[in-house]
Amino acid sequence: MTLKDPPSLRGRLLRLLWWPLLAVLVLSAVYDYLQWSDRARANQDLALSRIAIALATRLDVDADDAHDDDLGPHLQRTVQAMQRADGRDQLYFAVADGHGAVLGGDARLLALVPPPRADWAEFTDTHWAGEDVRVVVLPHHSPVGPVTVVVAETTERRVAQTHHVLVDTVVPNLVLLLLALGLVWLGVNLALGPLDRLSEQVGERAPDDLSAMPESPLPSELKPLVGALNRLMGHLREAAQAQQAFLSNAAHQLRTPLAGVINQIELAARTAEGPQRERLAAMQAALQRMTRSTHQMLALARSGPQAVAAETLHDVDLALLLEEGASLWLDPALAAGVDLGFETAPAVVRGSDWMLHELLGNLIHNAIRHSARGDHVTVRCGTAAPGGAWLEVEDEGPGIPPALRDKVFDRFFQTPDAAPGGSGLGLSIVREVAERHHAAVQLQAGGAGRGLLVRVTFPARDSRDTALR
User: Fold this and answer.
1) Could you read off the pLDDT of 9-64 as tens digits, one per residue?
2) 9-163 sits in which CATH class?
3) What are the CA-CA distances from residue 421 to residues 81, 124, 293, 405 (Å)?
């Protein structure tokens, strides 16, 4: 059973705003439709009642007119005149006296409606001559006595008016609904813009960037979150500093006893003879490899992004770095029969002194280890445009095939023809240190087409940098 991802904050806000807003707008549309529909119906009923009143007033004549004129044709002409004025709906009428005698119109209409129960007009809906009609019954006291006026009108105009009301109310409300939903969506996105930007800033930070995040341009609702993140960053910086201190102490504590054991074995080998001397020499070489591997693993851990998060940068003179390297590696080079040379030029980079020493030491160690007796190893440094610097180590060994030049940076990887005694960590440390300094490492063939040239190119210095990234 898989758990669904929780809804996003933006989705929750939109749902919480959209549905109530949609319900309000729908209710508003229904209310507007009913209101306008009732108003249109009332107006149409008023017009129909005025037709009935007009017929009733035609009966308000004196007695002589009532005896001389025929009321039926007279009323019929009145209805026909009103029919021509409308021209859309059909009108039907009937007028009856107090005894039920029909004075004019169609007597069948009297059967459609009940007798009037009051002195005002009453309306009803019914079916007449195959059509839906609206009927008004109007009692009236005329000079000829009490009469009942019944007028029926077809509903074509009413239905059309209802459709117009529907369109006139629903369409504006629909446009209002879409506009309101769009404004809600825009408002939610604008309101969550600072949160999106904060998310982008956190996502774009490097894994080793533990600097505090600014709180000033953020809304007050996000400041507690940023404050909590900054406190977390502070705890991580303290943990990184503690890790650095531990690794430094561990390196010192391991290096000292191992060096002592190697010295004791070397002293014992001087007085030993035959097979015992060989076994002591093999033991000494194994301890030296273990010391080198231990030192490299500790250096690799110390140069990792989390470990160096609190490392402080300063200007490092590459020429001085090469001079210090010469004093450390001339004896191992002489012991290996390798001509180690240095070509220095003024070059300064912004970085960590001990990490750059590790980078240079691993490059020189690899070059000496893969060189034969009589080969040359050359270490150079210089300045590159615009404002950067570079460091090179070139040897005359077997080199690295182009297909493996990316693979050799993996930890513990060694080429098939690599010299014995290595751990496969040297170039991994070089890459880690280079990444911490935003430097690029290139591997290429030596100047004479043989050997390996390792070039590390550093970016221009920026005095504003105070920590490694």
Assistant:
1) 777 777 777 788 778 878 887 887 788 778 778 887 888 888 888 877 777 654 44
2) alpha beta
3) 121, 110, 10, 20
Which helix (H) or strand (E) segment holds residue 291: the answer is helix 275-302
Beta bridge partners of 132: 127
pLDDT-based confidence at 392, cuts 50/70/90? very high
Which DSSP string do the residues of 93-156 spell out, in sequence order? EEEEETTS-EEEE-GGGGGTSPPP-SSS-EEEEEEETTEEEEEEEEEEEETTEEEEEEEEEESH
Q: Where in the chain is the domain with CATH 3.30.450?
A: 9-163
Alpha carbons 49 and 55: distance in angstroms, whole number = 10
387-414 mean pLDDT: 86
- Tell me which fold the domain 215-310 belongs to: Helix Hairpins (1.10.287)
- In this prediction, residue 198 has a pLDDT band, given cuts at 50, 70 and 90, of confident
Reduced DSSP (H G I as helix, E B as strand, rest coil) percent helix, strand, coil of the chain, to 5: 55, 20, 30
The rounded distance, in Å, linking the Cα atoms of 343 and 447 is: 15
Residue type, 161: Q
CA distance 283 to 290: 10
Query: pTM score, two decimals?
Result: 0.48
Would you place residue 228 in the very low, low, confident or very high pLDDT band (cuts 50, 70, 90)? confident
Q: How far is CA 92 from the centre of its chain?
A: 69
